[in-house]
Amino acid sequence: xxxxxxxxxxxxxxxxxxxxxxxxxxxxxxxxxxxxxxxxxxxxxxxxxxxxxxxxxxxxxxxxxxxxxxxxxxxxxxxxxxxxxxxxxxxxxxxxxxxxxxxxxxxxxxxxxxxxxxxxxxxxxxxxxxxxxxxxxxxxxxxxxxxxxxxxxxxxxxxxxxxxxxxxxxxxxxxxxxxxxxxxxxxxxxxxxxxxxxxxxxxxxxxxxxxxxxxxxxxxxxxxxxxxxxxxxxxxxxxxxxxxxxxxxxxxxxxxxxxxxxxxxxxxxxxx
Length: 272
Ligand SMILES: C[S@@+](CC[C@H](N)C(=O)[O-])C[C@H]1O[C@@H](n2cnc3c(N)ncnc32)[C@H](O)[C@@H]1O
Fold this sequence. Notes:
The chain is of the alpha/beta class and about 270 residues long. It is built from 9 helices and 10 strands.
């Protein structure tokens, strides 16, 4: 098992030409073959300027086709070249490990087969969101979920922290093949959110700028307006906190007791 083939999955960042880190660029330039998973043809052209053999993974997607099948084909396309002994680079927009199935699977599969495989981080939509919306995830905490998974499973939401829902444009798509779902699906999503947030609570529809000349979309709207708001494949929903942090008095008392004990020990004469 294994051989001279190797794989690097790198992130291109969100903004064309502006977010690419030197290590990711070097993986692209030095690979034998580059596979690009970017939805914007302009971004693909930009990657092609860095390497003579750039192959698009976009044709793996087809209308009505399950994304599970597309992902499997993408992994296979990259792994076939690795098995042939080539140095392969998978270039993915954003961060290759953030809400991205293919790079994780490809790296795991390559390693399982004994090849060297590596992931190089990139600037994700999440990073841009923190900068554009002025959110520090450390302030009160931040929960991230994929919107459909959030609808399909019972999750315990903490309304005193931020909530970020990814892929809100296809929220509730059970077929994993649709390019978009509509207001009826988003109404159900809003209904679920109403279990934890008031109808008038402000939420944000966020789209990071992907070109240096563009501006980000940062639409504030009440939760009650979510169903009829326009969303796209690249929209992320951000729900700010709706409740204050709750002090855990029992834990605070136990910590105080611990500190009092440590203090007493520190003050005790040596040898006691
Ligand atoms: C399959 S995930 C890929 C995320 C990507 N790997 C990253 O690092 O941001 C696709 C989801 O990312 C989010 N996304 C992609 N592009 C975005 C953008 N320009 N602005 C905001 N969110 C974006 C949306 O939630 C979208 O449905």
